[in-house]
Design brief:
151 residues; alpha+beta; 7-stranded mixed β-sheet; 7 strands; globular
Length: 151
């Protein structure tokens, strides 16, 4: 199963914004909605293609209410998310799944479940550099396209 996680913008109650809007509510109606991180909405789809399609269907809402849209595709990585743009490039065959791990956006994850201050990194000799923007309990790694790197 491919997972999707929508990360809400500051000051926005993402779940409320999406489920109170008819078009978004209909697009999400068949999914079991969970909160992966604070102010996020997570769900499982059957494939990378269906995940990207859902994100395209929700685009109007994503632009207004989210900071990020993440996709976890097990055939690419079991633990590292893909950005929406990278997921689409992999789906469309533009980017080889094995060539997706160079450019990274790493969020800090607080004990309260908040994603904080993303840091853009590249692997050093195959290893992930430490997240050092603040003390956090964990990190969330998102693979991004070269164009998104440092956005």
């Amino acid at each position: 199963m491919t997972r999707v996680c929508l990360v809400g913008s500051d000051g926005v109650d993402l779940r409320t914004e999406l489920v109170t809007r008819e078009t978004a509510r209909e697009a999400l109606a068949t999914y079991d909605l969970r909160e992966e991180y604070r102010n996020s909405l997570a769900l499982e789809t059957i494939s990378l293609g269906s995940a990207v399609s859902l994100l395209n269907d929700l685009n109007w809402y994503l632009v207004r209410f989210t900071d990020d849209a993440l996709v976890l595709e097990p055939s690419v990585s079991e633990t590292e998310w893909l950005s929406r743009d990278l997921a689409e490039a992999v789906r469309d065959g533009i980017t080889d799944p094995d060539a997706t791990d160079e450019y990274l956006k790493v969020y800090g994850l607080t004990a309260e479940g908040d994603l904080v201050e993303p840091m853009y990194l590249t692997r050093q000799d195959g290893a992930l550099p430490d997240y050092d923007l603040r003390d956090v309990d964990d990190t969330v790694v998102v693979r991004v396209t070269e164009a998104e790197f440092g956005d």
